[in-house]
Amino acid sequence: MNRRGFLAAGLASLGAACGLQQAKPGAESSRVALSDVKRLGVLRVDPIAGRCRYVADLGTRQVAQPILFARRGERFDALIENALPQPTTVHFHGLTLSQAQDGAGFDPIPPGERKRVRFEVQNRSGLYWFHPHPHGFTAEQVYAGLVGLLVVTDEDDQVLDAALALAPDNRLALAIADVRLGNGVIRPYAPGATDCLNGWFGNQALVNGRLDAAWTVAPGWVRLQILNACNARGLLLGFRDRNETEKERLLPFHLLGTDGGLLAAPRELDRVFLHGGERVDVALEASGRRALQAVSLDFDARHHAQSAAAAHRHPARERYAPLAAEAVCESASEAREGPADGTEMALFSLRVEGAPVRPPPLPTRLSGLAETDPLPDTPTRRVRLDFDERSGFLIDQTPYAVDETGFSVRRGAREVWEIKNSPISMPHPMHLHGFGFRVLRRQGTFGAARKFATEPGGRFATDLGVKDTVLAWPNETLWLALDFSLPRQEAFGGPQRYMFHCHNLEHEDGMMMRNITVL
Ligand code: C2O
Ligand code: CU
Ligand code: CU
Fold it and tell me: Is the CB of 514 under 6 A from ligand 1?
């Protein structure tokens, strides 16, 4: 039986049993120290709903969907085994790595093969993550459950936990993804033309792989490191008291950090906008409350683009079976779309249990991070995000080509990037591999999004700190400061190729990517 036949048979015989059960509470992701990982396997577990997960081999036991913990400076050394019927890679989103360890898709691991990956964690403390990046298969594999968290700790991070007097259960690392649930199962990835244009949206949130996710915390400070792991959905994150009579009231919280670690000082907010690939680190105070609900609030998602023709079919896809059902971008989808981007969605809840405490004050300094002021003669690179009816979303009118040099930069160079998004486009969370950057300024933000612009330079709170992913709304121009030196001046040996792309995964698979070559 060929692979396609095998998968079809699996679909028929397993019935509607798997998806929901896999997603039910109980399977708490466990913490695993980076230094204990012997081999990080990729395992296909559930062909019916196409669910997949990472499994870490610790020698004596196997841990599914581990949350990896590493101290800055620690090393990762493991064999990555591809047990999927498709090529895959493991990309460490946000980490400073050489091309060979970045997992960006230049050399995918074929089905059934292994690759040794070794690197040192050079980055600041923060929430980083890993996911597949094989060109043309990324969206499908991430949606199938291949999302892993890596928490990096350092001195600043430990000082903060001590200052907050965090109870052991009051610090959580959370990956939020949306899935399409129907008749009790997670629907397999099968995008129609509209999904490939706007992105694939789910109707339910899955947090660390669980539906209706809930955690129990103690009174006092709670620290949440949250990743938006959705294929395409933006999240306007807020918290409510479940027992509050004024149901709509939002609880204040404090933004401690973003993609690449802690801010210099916390910011008090009542909502924060988090797009695909972005992370926030927040503290909220749970004393005197019994149950909190995290929600994504309604927002104007500003999807301007209209096209029937932007459907794409990736050549690499022709040779491998989809993980679950037939996956194409060509069909007019039969009303299978999830609720639109910007629709309110419950995310997860926190139960507060234990004796009341008086929480210590929030520290006023979190890290020594300085504001960036690029030197006046820093060269500016102009990048245009385009949309056209025939080719869909492009960067500088150029569809992705694996072998292109793309933008070339010198190791150690500093640049300002001016990124302008087309007024007839849609929001694009733009991500750069290998290097963190700072957001300097935003301009041209439309009315409804301007209320997130609480910071100097028209910036959003999520623009603060060290970033690797930044949202560009339609019509906006963003200015970023980049520094292509390495934290430690070690040689990676020769020119290194990285990627710059939209983290809406349907756009990414649809060619909205460019290479960056560091010479
Ligand atoms: Cu998180 Cu190039 O991706
Ligand atoms: Cu990345
Ligand atoms: Cu995009």
Answer: no
Ligand 2: centre distance to CA 503 (Å): 9
pLDDT computed for residue 20 by the predictor: 31
* Cα distance between residue 180 and residue 206, in whole Å: 10
pLDDT, tens digit (0-9, with 9 covering 90-100), for 214-265: 999 999 999 999 999 999 999 999 999 988 877 789 999 999 999 999 999 9
Helix (H) or strand (E) holding 95: none
Distances (CA, A) of 407 to 105, 317, 338, 417, 516: 17, 27, 36, 11, 5
Instruction: Examine the pLDDT at 365 and tell me if it is beyond 80.
Output: yes
CA dist., res. 173 & res. 186, Å (int): 23
d(CA 431, CA 177): 18
Give dist(CA 204, CA 207) in Å, integer. 10
Which residue's entry shows tokens 């895959």?
A: 88
Contact 319, 264 (CB under 8 A): no
Distances from the Cα of 106 to the Cα of 86, 101, 365, 447, 499, angstroms: 15, 11, 41, 40, 10
Determine which residue's CA is closest to atom 3 belonging to ligand 1. Answer: 93
Average pLDDT of the segment spanning 96-109:
92
Rounded CA-CA distance 237/346 in Å is 10
CA geometry: angle at 260 spanning 303 and 440, to 5°?
A: 60
Atom of ligand 1 nearest to the CA of 469: 1
277 lines ligand 1 (CB under 6 A): yes
Structure tokens at 282: 């927040």
Ligand 1 touching residue 91 (CB < 6 A): yes
Does residue 135 line the site of ligand 1, with CB under 6 A? no
Q: What is the pTM of this model?
A: 0.92
